[in-house]
Amino acid sequence: MTALRFVAALWVVLFHLQAMRQTFLSPVYELFGPVMANGDLGVDVFFVLSGFIITYTYLDRLGPRFRWRAARDFVWARFARMWPAFALVVGVLGLWFAYGTEEQSVATWSLQTQAPDLSPWGLAKQLLMIHLWFQAGTDGASWFGPGWTVSAEWLAYLTFPLLALVLFRLRGLHPLAALAASVLVLLPTAAWGQNLPIAGSEHQPYEWLLRIACCFIAGAFACIAVRNADRMNFNPALAGPGAVLAGAAVVIFLAAAGKPGPGRLAVLAFPLLVALLGLTRGWLRSALSARWLQYGGRSSYSLYLVHMFFIYLFYWLNWPHGAGPLATNLLAAGCLAGIALATHVLFKYVEEPARQRLRALVPRPR
Known about the structure:
Blueprint: H1 2-16, H2 26-37, H3 41-62, H4 68-100, H5 106-109, H6 120-127, H7 148-169, H8 175-184, H9 187-191, H10 207-227, H11 239-257, H12 260-263, H13 270-279, H14 283-288, H15 291-298, H16 300-317, H17 325-361
Helix pairs in contact: 1-3, 1-15, 1-16, 2-11, 3-7, 3-10, 3-13, 4-7, 4-16, 4-17, 7-10, 8-10, 10-13, 11-13, 16-17
């Protein structure tokens, strides 16, 4: 699961790095163009993973009955995990906006079609991680484009203590029934972007709410399927090859689909992929336990938070006339190195120590 987090984060980063596709990265985008064009699906992978892991970790603790203390401890643990690194990035971006918007409009400087709210209330919404709750679309909600997912995830965490009461009473589902439920609950968000009456135009009002709700609940059902896998005498040796085949099928489908619209149907395979990884043993488990993959997965949140700032730098340092090929490639390489370094620094010196200190403020029950 940790390795998959890294893959999903890298997928989103490569999706946003299309701004650098005319640099030395061009062979990557020529070879994997359709897969990169659907890189926003990495967010859906995150949402499914989140539903799976949160259910796996907290269902037995929160599901039997609602208890304020247990709900408080859960919400505080998630706050400690998300807020410190996000708050620091918001502060840095505030300085970035203060510098850039003296000569450019807020929308232009943020590379969004709608201008983010830079008022004191706008800052408060960012710091409270509720900035997405007040608008139907994601564009302009966050001070940096992909930051809307932090607000969506925070909403899922706040509602999980209530959702757990329902999921706990469904914990006895047969694994095949649970997997079927995970696919069925994804149908609305999979249909988004298709030429179906339910889909409509490319950007639907509150489409973000549909994505987080469908994907998070689908991940929860995938977790129930894994918990009950022994009821169908499933051979764990088949999980590894099955996960590889599922991942390969997603890549082949996206390559064939080409455009992001039809590619959204790939989301239907994510619960199966996550469930198979949850049952994986042997060689694949060992491969995914490699130290660099584990570190990449643990620091994936920091990677997700910092990468957009360096894309801003690349765009504005290379605008309006563009530098020569050598300078552009050097700038792109410097931005990639900056992303890697900033990810390490944010994770090691902010995200992880701040999480531990905030968790220590609330004593854990024995």
